Amino acid sequence: MSIHSKEIESKADLIKPFEDGEKKPCDFRIGTEHEKFAFHLNTLKPVSFSEKKGIEALLLSLKKYGWESILEGNNTIGLKRKESLGGGTITLEPAGQLELSGAPLNNLHETFDELNEHRIQISKEGSELGIGFLSAGLTPDWAIDEMPVMPKKRYEIMRNYMPKKGSLGLDMMFRSTTIQVNLDYSSEADMVKKFKVSLALQPIATALFSNSPFLNGKLNGYNSYRSHIWTDTDPDRTGFLPFVFEGDMSYEKYVDYALKVPMYFIYRDGNYIDVSGLSFENFLEGRLAELPGEKPTIFDWENHLTTIFPEVRLKSFLEMRGADGGKFESVCALSSFWVGLLYDQISLDSSWDLIKDFDVDKIQDLRLQIVKNGLKSSFGNSTVLSLVTSVLNLSNEGLKRRDVFNGNGQDESIFLNPLRKIIETERTPSDELVKKFLEDWDKDLVNMYKEYTF
């Protein structure tokens, strides 16, 4: 019997997936994920799934590079690749946002190579289908009612449930993209330290990678409207997690939190059963009307954990979730930023010293400020720009100490160059977009589809 099909018998079974994630530092890996919008080159409109030159046609065209179909029913709704060919998956977000979930890699130079290979493949196949890829955290001028819907039952359940819990959940699903990085921990204590540091500094990442100042063809007044969307999506499963900063933070504490998050679905025999809003705790007791007397398996628990969306998420690794989708160089920069802070012990310890006395309420206030004002926000008696500069220096030093070089003798800190430019100019990607919109583009967002392709 597979461990995933094992029926959960105790809280220890719920904790075990987190314990199983522990790795020796020499085995730490980097898993980079990013999303981008697919658009028709001739109309600059979104691409639907089943049209002749649509999303499924794009996925099928990529199979020549060693990718294999992930099927739901008869539809190819994603791709996977054997580890021997590079690994990773290509999946679809609710409106067809194309996501590369990269393989767990050794270093950031490998991350760059993986992303570059992906860019070459989708650019070639996309151009033959008349499809381009937009690097933005939010659809700049597409209305919610013109967004296509991917044929994934999971998303249908979410789409029906989201409006019951907040006013912006459908915008999150259909009109936003993000960059994420998944990083390892060596022990429960290491997880706790990294969780606290990354959650406290997640607003810094939101500022540095803010890239969503437009909505419905106009300025929306936010540096990161994508991040703002998460403040009114579903409070049961999103946002900041104050309990992480408590002294008794542990795997068990996260389990207790996750158990309180309502479920979305249960997967059985190739079908998604809608249990949205129901309790996993009741499921543990065999008290779900949809599956009377049946208790969950480890697979059910791991699925449930994927439906929780805080700023930092714990699975068998830690997932950084605070950044807007962005240009090619931003993807490597996001992974580099966090690797430098969390994978070098000196930088991690220095980051802990920096944040350990932060007031939790002030961190939450900072996040709300940054969503609106970016680098122009303040933090206590200091400017955010000063804090960002200090944190970026810690990341840079950590990357240099990792001492990992490419064929040109460059270490991993080269991937922080886009962030150094932000510090020098004191302008986030959103600030740059606003400047171009007002001064260079004559408020015509057609130019964005020319200059901000992946």
Strand-pairing-aware structural class: alpha+beta
| Count of discrete domains | 1
Could you say what the CATH topology is called?
Creatine Kinase, Chain A, domain 2
Question: How many whole angstroms does the radius of gyration measure?
Answer: 21 Å
Could you give the count of β-strands?
17
Largest sheet: 9 strands, antiparallel
The CATH architecture can be given as 2-Layer Sandwich
Shape: globular
Continuous helix count:
17
- Beta-strand portion reads 15-25%
For the residues shown, what is the average pLDDT? Answer: 97
Spans of at least 5 consecutive residues whose pLDDT stays below 50 are: none
Helix content: 40-55%
Terminal CA distance reads: 43 Å
What do these coordinates show?
This protein is an alpha+beta fold and 454 residues long. 41% of the residues lie in helices and 15% in strands. The protein has a single domain, classed as Creatine Kinase, Chain A, domain 2 (2-Layer Sandwich). It is built from 17 helices and 17 strands. Strands 1, 2, 3, 4, 5, 6, 7, 14 and 15 form a nine-stranded antiparallel beta sheet that branches. It has a two-stranded antiparallel sheet with strand order 8-9. Helix 3 packs antiparallel against helix 11 and helix 6 packs antiparallel against helix 11. It is globular. The chain starts with 10 loop residues before the first helix and ends with a helix.
